[in-house]
């Protein structure tokens, strides 16, 4: 007997009951000697899982893909996507959906193993993942969650005891990813391209049931689905911009229907404010630069709208008009979310027409003086601008006066303004040099203390405590730009 029941796995497999062309069943690809590196206790508990049982040999075998827990039904999901603008067939080439965990509260979450071995969709890849990038996803996704940004979560990272071949041999690992679902824009693209209209309807109805139950009985639920996805993505990308998060690979297969951030590959947080910031080594054109993210999200949503055309109206011309109408509303929605967030970052409660211009001017000054994005807002929050390059410049002095005057034109007290700012402007973000330092200690020296300390600090980004002080510091100046890598 196993401990599966004690562990609390409580699977349903609704996706595996969808048409067979949506996925392939997948046997496990056992790894040599699984070793649990990190486990997210709070997340485990919220999923109804027993933290002690998860750490037993059997518990870890599940997280390594060596043992299928009772009720699990491992599948690899099919999807397509536009990668850097080019349409292609993709699918889970190195991931396995174990099943959908039904929590004690009755919520449903996909439990997916990433790095679990080859599947039907692996093409030339080995289906594996390296320890560094899986720990990186763990750190950044958990930091995003703590920042209040919708995201897939990370339950655990298990080392496989096997080496994988990249530029050099690296320790292999498997990340357990937890998601509202793994339905992507690319999932719709796959079914729209190679499935029947009936299958498309089944997928759309499934997505609605899973994420947008409130629209299920509405008049044109497929139009509502499009609008709701637009709403969530407009809100999501605005949140990214507000904290300086750069996703790095906003291909349509990396955009969820649920509105969660997914696929932490070459992502990174911006230090110095610059809309042209790009970290990903393969993004040579800057397609996914910080300042482009809102537009790319719009482009991806247009691809999503295209997939829905047969469901929007029987007449194709009318369907196109309906879709275009919905898509044309995206930018305004994004702007509204972003400006609302920016007002909060500046302690502003009410609305004035000139607010956008005030915000824009601050960005212009940050750009001119190469100021750190996070620390500028933190400096404003604590009225401690001395450490920033804006301090004492004529532009900033003038802007500061305008801002103070603006704060005077609302009923809320100065103290409420500062509180709003403290709760909106993080003290700590996963700064690249800190993340690298933690990964190096974990991967090269087997020392997990650095990563655990970092995770602890990142779990309370708005605490503004003295222990966080050192995590606010910028990296030492370097001649080499920070670079991140994809699919590693
Ligand atoms: P990503 O860059 O993680 O969004 O992945 C893009 C596509 O490449 C997806 O279909 C992945 O499943 C696939 N892929 C990435 N890495 C591997 C790998 N090591 N082996 C097989 N497929 C992979
Ligand atoms: Mg992907």
Automatic annotation (TrEMBL):
It comes from Bacillus xiapuensis. NCBIfam families: PRK00029.1 (NF000658). ATP binds at residues 91, 93-94, 114, 126-127, 177, 184, 263. Keywords: ATP-binding, Magnesium, Manganese, Metal-binding, Nucleotide-binding, Nucleotidyltransferase, Transferase. Nucleotidyltransferase involved in the post-translational modification of proteins. It can catalyze the addition of adenosine monophosphate (AMP) or uridine monophosphate (UMP) to a protein, resulting in modifications known as AMPylation and UMPylation. Mg(2+) binds at residues 254, 263. Its EC number is 2.7.7.-, 2.7.7.108. Its cofactor is Mg(2+); Mn(2+). InterPro entries: SelO. It catalyses: L-tyrosyl-[protein] + ATP = O-(5'-adenylyl)-L-tyrosyl-[protein] + diphosphate; L-threonyl-[protein] + ATP = 3-O-(5'-adenylyl)-L-threonyl-[protein] + diphosphate; L-seryl-[protein] + ATP = 3-O-(5'-adenylyl)-L-seryl-[protein] + diphosphate; L-histidyl-[protein] + UTP = N(tele)-(5'-uridylyl)-L-histidyl-[protein] + diphosphate. Belongs to the SELO family. It is an enzyme of class 2 (transferase). The active site is at residue 253. This is Protein nucleotidyltransferase YdiU. It holds the Pfam family SelO.
């Amino acid at each position: 007997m196993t401990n599966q029941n004690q562990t609390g796995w409580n699977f349903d497999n609704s996706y595996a009951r969808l048409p067979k062309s949506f996925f392939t069943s997948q046997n496990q690809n056992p790894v040599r000697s699984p070793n649990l590196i990190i486990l997210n206790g709070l997340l485990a508990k919220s999923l109804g899982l027993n933290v002690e049982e998860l750490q037993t040999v059997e518990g870890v075998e599940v997280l390594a893909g060596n043992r299928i827990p009772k009720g699990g039904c491992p599948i690899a999901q099919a999807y397509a996507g536009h990668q850097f603008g080019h349409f292609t067939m993709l699918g889970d080439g190195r991931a396995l959906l174990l099943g959908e965990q039904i929590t004690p509260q009755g919520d449903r979450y996909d439990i997916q193993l990433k790095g679990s071995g080859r599947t039907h969709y692996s093409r030339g890849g080995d289906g594996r993942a390296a320890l560094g990038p899986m720990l990186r996803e763990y750190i950044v996704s958990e930091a995003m969650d703590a920042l209040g940004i919708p995201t897939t979560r990370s339950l655990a990272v298990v080392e496989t005891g096997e080496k994988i071949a990249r530029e050099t041999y690296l320790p292999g690992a498997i990340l357990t990813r937890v998601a509202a679902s793994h339905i992507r824009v690319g999932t719709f693209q796959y079914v729209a391209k190679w499935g029947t209209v009936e299958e498309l309807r089944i997928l759309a109805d499934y997505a609605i049931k899973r994420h947008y139950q409130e629209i299920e009985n509405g008049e044109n639920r497929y139009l509502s689905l499009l609008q709701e996805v637009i709403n969530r993505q407009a809100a999501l990308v605005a949140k990214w911009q507000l904290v300086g998060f750069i996703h790095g690979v906003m291909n349509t297969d990396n955009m969820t229907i649920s509105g969660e951030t997914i696929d932490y590959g070459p992502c990174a947080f911006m230090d110095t404010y610059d809309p042209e910031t790009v970290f990903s080594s393969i993004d040579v054109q800057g397609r996914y630069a910080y300042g482009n993210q809102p537009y790319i999200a719009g482009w991806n949503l247009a691809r999503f709208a295209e997939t829905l055309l047969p469901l929007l109206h029987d007449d194709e011309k009318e369907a196109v008009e309906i879709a275009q109408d919905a898509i044309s509303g995206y930018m305004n929605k994004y702007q509204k979310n972003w400006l609302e967030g920016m007002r909060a970052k500046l302690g502003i409660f009410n609305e004035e027409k000139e607010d956008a211009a005030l915000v824009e001017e601050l960005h212009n000054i940050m750009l001119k003086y190469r100021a750190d994005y996070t620390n500028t807002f933190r400096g404003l929050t604590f009225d401690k601008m001395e450490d920033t390059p804006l301090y004492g410049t004529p532009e900033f002095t003038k802007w500061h006066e305008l801002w103070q005057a603006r704060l005077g034109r609302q009923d809320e007290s100065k103290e409420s303004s500062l509180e709003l700012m403290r709760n909106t402007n993080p003290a700590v973000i996963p700064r690249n040099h800190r993340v690298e330092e933690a990964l190096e200690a974990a991967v090269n020296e087997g020392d997990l203390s650095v990563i655990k300390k970092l995770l602890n600090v990142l779990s309370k980004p708005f605490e503004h405590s003295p222990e966080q002080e050192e995590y606010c510091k910028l990296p030492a100046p370097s001649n080499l730009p920070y670079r991140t890598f994809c699919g590693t």
